[in-house]
Amino acid sequence: MNFIVRRKPPLFSISRPIPLLPIPACHASAAGEASASRRSRYSTAAPGEKGSPSSSSSSSSSKFPEYELPSVTWGVVQGRKERLVSRVIISDYLKSLGIAPDELADVELPSSVDIMRERVDFLTRLGLSVDDLNAYPLLLACSVRKNMIPVLGYLEKLGVPRPRLGEFVRAYPQVLHASVVVELAPVVKFLRGLDVERSDIPYVLQRYPELLGFKPEGTMSTSVAYLVSIGLWPRDIGPMVTQYPFFLGMRVGTTIKPLVEFLVSLGLPKRILAKMLEKRPYILGYDLEETVKPNVDVLLSFGVRRECLPTVIAQFPQILGLPLKAKLSTQLYFFNLKLKIDPDGFTRAMEKMPQIVSLHQNVMLKPVEFLRGRGIPDEDVANMVVKCPQLLACRVEFMKNSYYFFKSEMKRPVQELFEFPEYFTYSLESRIKPRYQRLANKGIRCTLDWFLNCSDQRFEERLQGDYIEADAPGPSFVMGGKLEMPRSHLVSDKEEDESDEEVLYRRTISL
User: Fold this and answer.
1) In 3-state terms, what secondary structure has residue 364?
2) Which of 57, 169, 201, 209 is deepest in the core (most CB within 10 A)?
3) Name one GO molecular function term (predicted).
């Protein structure tokens, strides 16, 4: 007697994916027995063999190999052939949009083209273009509901504006693969622990979105710990992160430490260096071998004395990252041609005010023309600029007022301006007038340097004195990092109790 075994049609099709429903524990055994019963119904024992569960199972798997365990990601039972058909359809759809699906070959794709179309539409509405998707096709492997919406919702909750979410994803598309709880939230918590203001978090993340890919206990913690070890206060790290968050992703051994050690070897004290980094953390982004060292060599080649390098860098740290050779060549030519200052004078002026490297030539020319217009010879004007290069940054209208007061009220010879050109750098209303009136009331006749080049406290001490003492030289750097302050009875009692570095830090370095 012949038996005909009819094969039932598959329960799931491509066009109508059916989501998996969890099976209650109480029905698990019953479901297993029912499954075994169905397998035995469609199995046939080989001639001469009795049907057994094991033989039925192996026969079933070989009879219907296209059905395997359901996909964990998409929750739809799909056969191997159906998956291949779906992949071909989805690949054709992506190619029709101009997206190359090559990088998605090893990635699990959705069960239907409709889901892929939903992802493409979502990313397009977010602001991404086809070029953006081609630059990082793995974005299409992210589920809209499981990946994109939770991550973007969290970023918007932090304060990233919705119109800029597309730009954020374009800059760091890997963020859509991240887990909010496991990866993103710990980074935000770490930033808050560094005293980064809550309102600054979105700004920091938009400037450096890759920050969300670091582990707090890794590179970021190491960078912070090293900066604290060289003299930075922990409470100062937060403002540094807000200004330049990129240093959190720099490795200490290969980037931060070599740069710090090189600057210290030039003679910069660590305390001054720490203050520089606090105010201008972007210095940490200068490449040591390609930018910093070549610029130091350029300064030396233009005649800057090695013992003056620390003061030059402390006054103008940006000089380490400029295209220095071209700028110095241009300014040297301008000084020689327009200001009548020789190369040696240019170098001496740059040692005192390295900012002249970046000053616009029209700005520098106006004060010089003003002085020449007062009848001062070119040679004397050049000497005044070399002695006080800050003149080149003065506003002409302020210089006019100061010069008028000097001639009409103080009635002093112009020769005193040659000796003390710094006169034009002081405020007329807050320093020159009040102090001169007090001197006039007391009938004291002194040099411009004596009553202007001192603090208010020192000026009061001088007014109470019985005689006019000579001025003492200012502080200076010495190679090797040690700071020297000239010992003199002119310093106040408070200053005598301070170390040399503290006096320099408090009085002379203003970054």
Assistant:
1) helix
2) 169
3) nucleic acid binding
